[in-house]
């Protein structure tokens, strides 16, 4: 059985074949970036820094929710909107932003998006109320929408097909480092100087990442401007949504992120309560487990080569499930181990699903990636809000139940993909006769 993600192996090479024909007809050789070649390391590091800035800003308040609750006198579910507003706005704006990237270029849009996001990040610490804070976070999320889809589309165009999964894995690894460093830094800074100084620190770090990103990222050589006409965009989106494989991948991304968003939004509240009663700095350090996500995302290419994409998704779902169950035990080492497994499973699943979208889309790569990112961040927003509601209603067990339900959805969808692949394999020999 081929290693196509969830049952549509015939489309895997379509994107690469189109680009290959262009490059070979114009230069005689494939001029796209490859490991060891000129520009590949700069490109990888630049997008790694973009991933760091994106996740550090996007989730800058997540580890600080107990302090935000205390400062403004609001509940956990109300404070969680400082996360949900950012991820929800990103989900809403990622598709329009992807259309702009098709017209004006991936690098241009990513640069503009980071510039606006870091500017808002420097205003967030001065929010006078929970309403103002949520509003600023929504604007920040909308600005960051220009990054995810544009980055994966840039990679699909500028990187050779055999290196694509690894390159996207490195970008996702930057996400994990940004998420980790943002939470660890804010935890310790907030313990000494409060949450406002903590988010200001993240804003300054993001400024540095944005400047370095713009200086390092190579100019695109294989980008062809597209149309901004709404009818063209609507037709492209409709074609992507009509593809059963892409629909499954979008749902998988949303469900994985629902688990992750719910767990990491609520974990701070769990660890501040008995029997743990940990201080804010120690809780922030818990997010060092994101390093596991960095490793699992960056090695996704090797995992797919060994197990295939569907096998990799099964493994990611099983790892996440084991972590959720372990986290139920009132033992700090077991809770930490549970978080390690949840993080490893999530980032592996996300890297596999997102790279599969880039492989599958025949045209309108930015829109295909944008739809994935939209589903992904809708899952994050839903997970953050529903995870907090479940925690309020049933404690940590309620949040875990929500996560298990989402993982069950991932496994079910992947099984449907396996069934579709077998049906297609039976149908093709019949046509041949």
Outline the secondary-structure elements.
Blueprint: H1 14-27, H2 40-58, H3 65-72, H4 76-79, H5 81-104, H6 106-123, H7 130-144, H8 148-158, H9 164-193, H10 195-216, H11 230-241, H12 244-272, H13 280-285, H14 290-298, H15 300-326, H16 332-360, H17 365-432
Helix pairs in contact: 2-6, 2-9, 2-10, 5-6, 5-7, 5-17, 6-7, 6-8, 6-10, 8-9, 8-17, 9-10, 9-14, 9-16, 12-16, 12-17, 14-16, 15-16, 15-17
Structural description of this entry:
- With 433 residues, this protein is mostly helical.
- 80% of the residues lie in helices and 0% in strands.
- It has 17 helices and no strands.
- Helix 5 packs antiparallel against helix 6 and helix 14 packs parallel to helix 16.
- The two termini are 20 Å apart.
- The N terminus is likely disordered.
Residue-averaged pLDDT: 83
- Residues in β-strands, percent: under 5%
Gap between N and C termini: 20 Å
The strand count comes to: 0
Low-confidence stretches: 1-27
Largest sheet: none
Instruction: Give the SSE order as H and E letters.
Output: HHHHHHHHHHHHHHHHH
Summing up helix and strand content along with how strands pair, one would put the structural category as mainly alpha
Radius of gyration: 21 Å
Helix content: over 70%
